């Protein structure tokens, strides 16, 4: 673990946020309270899994029972599938107010058993996010240059608490790991603006920031302020597909994106207004790449990579709407991840508000 | 007869069972309401450990018992009793101390509201407890932007509430379909429900509301050149006062202005924003020295409609003059 920069420590996680798996079973966990991202070796005990589906009814009741609280005191913030064991990890907030507690939960995909992943004395590392600061601005009293590894590691005792600077700290909306780099989409709290960060892992090297400019079809304008809500690596990590509220889907190349520059995204689809994308996943079907987008209002939509690749950038207001999309007959999908080559795992909220885990067969999507 | 009691085991809270068969180790505890509502699946018991303590069996939870919650104990799958964790006695002392803007008339394209509380609040319930209602008290549906992450300041005492920008920006589908969240010439109220819980989980002492009239749209960039500066006298600690041409965003105006001296050094002092956010002053900690000074304006400063020094929030695409790439003058000099 030493070559990945992890040290034994106890991550002080205030707010459970987005999670994503990195190399060697390391889980990235974003804490939007402290504007930090922890890398945690979850020491997953499972054997290498095959391609079986995994379904679990009444996930929220199971979690509430395990956590000893009411169902309304359980908030599932994000979901990630371990790349080899296929156990399901959930970033969960238990309780409210001062009693609020971030819990990392593991669900055994063979038995459905629930366990909490210990965050005490585990191999871990931390990076703290700050917006590009004016150095003479006294409001930025957190002098923590990106990549200062010594400041960012957590050792046996608790680390120094990083107080959130509400203006300058971004919250994390989504993360993904690709080839030594953690991609982080963030929402700046008060300015209503966003950035895509590329954080090298192991933590320590300089973070590359890119401001994004996209054409927002339903807004009818070029947009630099709207936040990415969710994204997925695409084309073997050479680019990402990102979704924004109201709901452009944008192809953003990463390969030629020089740090600190503005990257112009290519808007490939407009999925509809009055809608927020919740999660995305890419999968293969018959050798071709496809993307699923889960939405608040427009259900679960499937887009084809070949359509995306051939789609000229949308630069006209309101129409056309870009690549064809196919609405799946599945409602209430709020989170997605790849379970295995044959299944996508979906977190579904039913009409009664109950949560369930569903395996979606990729061949049938 | 099994007796259940809230107790301690060493430093830990526990649920103590008395009267079980000796050395019972399979005591399981469940939140009673979850157990009652979920009969179709076998629920996992609450995380924790069972410890035999003399004649008693203690369940020490992995996660703290929740006040006011009923727990059911089972041994070997059979109910052996239930106990309700006592509520924490707490006064309803938290209240809303301000709702911003603090002016009676707001532009129709108002972007942002702030609710200031007297103590740290619980997160996650804002959408349920903050609403806009019209004169008749009817809720104004979909007027506020729903977000996964609520916008709180570091102390969790100030909540930022955004009106749905997609309904404010002209030319958007949401705007075309549903129109502005606010109606020109009409009144509305921002209502904060007393059920909003503070960080202790206790409801507010009382709800709060503020009434506004809706005035004309504001679509001009914030222009510091239109402000008036009242310079203080040299060798005094009188405040320098800046009067704006319109009310500005309360949250941003508090932090986006500063005063520098001829060498560009920041003048330290106490900053006050007028309650109506139409003026701002800085009272220096040291006396003023003669020479050039300037009020510097951060480009992110916005008015009530989200127009900043750098750009208009809802820019008219056809209007060449309306270009966000031409920020106005951002330093206002004054001579002492």
Overview of this protein structure:
The complex is a heterodimer of chains A (365) and B (336). Chain A is mainly β and 365 residues long. In chain A, 5% of the residues lie in helices and 44% in strands. Chain A has helices at 59-67, 149-152, 305-309, and strands spanning 7-9, 19-21, 26-31, 36-41, 74-81, 88-94, 101-107, 114-116, 122-128, 170-178, 181-188, 194-200, 208-216, 221-223, 228-234, 239-244, 248-253, 262-264, 266-270, 277-285, 288-295, 300-304, 326-327, 333-340, 343-349, 355-361. In chain A, strands 10, 11, 12, 13, 14 and 18 form a six-stranded mixed beta sheet that branches. In chain A, a hairpin with a 4-residue loop joins strand 21 and strand 22. The longest helix of chain A has 9 residues, at 59-67. Mean pLDDT of chain A is 82; it is low at 132-170. With 336 residues, chain B is mainly β. Helices cover 7% and strands 35% of the residues of chain B. Chain B has five helices and 22 strands. In chain B, the strands form six sheets. A four-stranded antiparallel beta sheet of chain B has the order 1-2-5-4, with no helix packed on it. Chain B has a four-stranded antiparallel beta sheet with strand order 8-10-13-12, with no helix packed on it. The radius of gyration of chain B is 29 Å and the shape is elongated. Chain B starts with a strand and ends with a strand.
For this entry, give a set of tags.
heterodimer, A: 365 residues, mainly beta, six-stranded mixed sheet, five-stranded antiparallel sheet, 26 strands, B: 336 residues, Immunoglobulin-like, four-stranded antiparallel sheet, 7% helix, elongated
